[in-house]
Amino acid sequence: MSTLTRWGRDLDPDAVLPEYPRPQLVRDSYLNLNGRWEYAITGDGEEPVTYDGPIVVPFSPESALSGVDRRLMPGQTLWYRRGLTLPDGFGTGGRVLLHFGAVDQTCRVLLNGVEAGRHTGGYLPFGFDVTDLLRDGENVLTVAVRDDTDTGQHARGKQKLERGGIWYTPQSGIWQTVWAERVPATHVERLTLTPHLDESCVEVTVHAAEGEADVEILAAGTVVARATVPAGRPVRVPIPDVRPWSPEDPFLYDVTVELGADRVRSYVGMRSYGVGTDADGVPRLLLNGRPYFHAGILDQGYWSDGMYTAPSDEAMIHDIATMKRLGFTMLRKHIKIEPLRWYHHCDRLGMIVWQDMVNAGGRYHPLVVTAPAVVPFHLPDRFFGRAHRERFLAELRETVEHLRNVVSIAVWVPFNEGWGQFDAARVAAEVARLDPTRTVDHASGWHDQGAGDLRSLHVYFRRFRVPRRRDRRVLVLSEYGGYGLRVDGHTFNDRNFGYRRYDTPDRLGAAFARLHAEQIVPAIPRGLSATVYTQLSDVEDELNGLLTYDREVLKLPEDLVRAVNLRLTLDRTR
């Protein structure tokens, strides 16, 4: 069963997610390829002679908004096909690049029957230079996809063939924007923009084959800094009178880069993340060099009609803006990598992000992933699987690089509750080496190996208490709450999963306020430095969201949630 959101009801299949998909590397050349394609599902790898019908890309075939509502099973192949004609005004010369935001899981891309490339990894973007495969007039673009869901070792998130409880209906295929651009032969391949707030400068690296780039940094439309940057070489560009980025003042500097005939636009926020101590010597998270409490909520990024894919840009904005209005300062993006536009909205609206890596590995043993929720204990590394490790590490490195420029990301979370966990201390050290500008929560929930920057606890079935044993790391309650309320007419099915259930909004509200007044707020002076309430919205069986799955009903009064969150601060005058 699926409930359409307001944005899903208004969806125009001929204008699906038309916004530019890469906000930190923008060119004028842009051809959106979302919309109506043909699809077929076959039991072998041979391209079908006839296709089964239309599909709306980039919604997976399992979703309502795709218009298909069919499940791809392990061993099957999902085929996509559409015509591709470069429009007048798209330009000539240079190279034509074809981009896919994300395709779950393994795919092969063909243009006019010739293979353009292959990719494995359901959560990361990829693209191919298709210049030499294009012909005048109409071309035929074909994509073949296979997805083993939880029967394989690859990254899968919370998808499960046998869905239920905290595991959700699997989705497959293209689930982020497909698009093309024309670039000069020598062009900006990517940018690295690293703010150094203490030194009032931005370190700019223009990744390109050759040449020098002219870089301008602008504040509210006025150029405040210029530099010439050789390709591939980091250059620090001083910025006068720096205006720091924060949730309270999410100021962004615009950046323009010219490399030969190529011109791109980007942006950067001047902020710093870290750990340190407050005036009493208590370990705390730091924002811009000062202790800052992260009042967060778990955000799984599932939609009742689009599954992994938000039905519109406005829908993504709605989630972020609503949580900010409720007084949250942080979203923990749970076991999913969003389209770059989602991070852009967090940057510009002022919402800190904790970014989970996507879990992988074979089937999880209940001793590893379930039992610690009731009786906390830690298992040594020999209890965890091994087959997926190299692939996980490769995708971890790709994830850090892909999201490196995101202003709002403060914390990397390699592992959650033992799902695919291995060598967590070593992996945390690798993440810190890859990106020393952010903090690391090496094992959110169970199986702490004493590594990373955070001592990260999940507490659902018992009272939260600050641990007696002091730790050099910052204490965070990275999941808690999960209080459920069913709102009839806005649910996925007739199941009711939640860590505690309530039958009226008043009772839920009283319990929510009592939980924070009795357990959370008193723990802050004793070292608690961040919280992640479960969760932003209902997801399938889970009815423990502040919003219903279709985002139509906020289950608690805004002023109640805002008043509770106002007390989640290091400011003792509140």
TrEMBL record:
Belongs to the glycosyl hydrolase 2 family. Residues 186-271 form the Glycoside hydrolase family 2 immunoglobulin-like beta-sandwich domain. The keyword Hydrolase applies. It comes from the Bacteria. Residues 76-146 form the Glycosyl hydrolases family 2 sugar binding domain. Residues 286-451 form the Glycoside hydrolase family 2 catalytic domain. Signal peptide: none annotated. The lineage of its organism: Bacteria, Bacillati, Actinomycetota, Actinomycetes, Streptosporangiales. Keywords: Hydrolase. This is Glycoside hydrolase family 2 protein. It holds the Pfam family Glyco_hydro_2_C. One of its GO terms (molecular function) is hydrolase activity.
